[in-house]
Prior knowledge:
It contains eleven helices and nine strands. By secondary structure, it is an alpha/beta fold. It is globular.
Amino acid sequence: MSSKGLTAQLPSSLAAERHGSVAVLKLNRPQKRNALDDETIIGIEQFFTSLPEDIGAVLIAGDGEHFSAGLDLTELKERNVTQGIAHSGLWHRAFDKIQFGKVPVVAVLHGAVVGGGLELAASAHVRVAERSAYYALPEGSRGIYVGGGGSVRLPPLIGVARMMDMMLTGRTYSAEEGQAIGLTTYLVENGKGFAKGLELAQRIAGNAPLTNFAVMHALPRIAQMSPASGLAMEALISSIAQADGEAKARLKDFLEKRGPKATRD
Ligand code: 1HE
């Protein structure tokens, strides 16, 4: 596959390729277990900022035996408090571009998905795990704290209590446990994650852009509102979506027996 149209200048720790309307971003530093250094985080931000208009979804995956070993610990040792805050801000900006960017993102997880690697995964909209995946927050044992948005993005997925347990005791969750507690919504055999993730990303890319926008940008915000505000926001978003030409065309297709049915998978 080529990287045609994907214009971001990526560091060697990242690789991009295109599969039709899906852009694939691979963590490409297997010799360091896809540890995330500053260059990589900046590359991720640039990739998501410069996605071509015709990309409808992104797939993130990791090369080698592990999705990601998290923060590159070699970069940690010289930082003072002020630099630490700036560093965390760098991660926050990059991962915000994933969660609240232009198009939905699917993450394929395998091997270690730990620390900042889990925070990266939590920024995606759909997570697919291979059976080899496992999840940990080793920050506790390293004397540090999550800094890539984990405090904000992980509790809605697994709850504050489980995140506390992971950080305080070093508890690791297996792929099966991760699936059961809500870290992932798909669990597939080893080696099958990429194909499953790509299939899902292609399906997502075929949705009406306004629907994808509403799911990415309105749904998580409505979930944080009071019920009354949430219902008002939902009424507005649904009326905007249904007034769009794309919705009208898709409804017409269904009513004229051309559109897909909502059948069992
Ligand atoms: C690294 C890193 C890293 C590996 N930073 N270099 N993350 C962690 O605490 C996890 C640390 N890593 C590990 O526990 C293990 O490496 C793994 C379980 C992921 C994989 O084990 P293994 O046996 O396959 O590999 P390895 O021999 O440990 O590592 C291979 C190389 O990658 C080695 O370098 P080499 O030059 O000696 O070959 C390792 O030093 C290097 N490597 N992980 C730097 N993380 C925004 S805040 C987020 C805070 C966090 O993410 S904290 C969690 C950090």
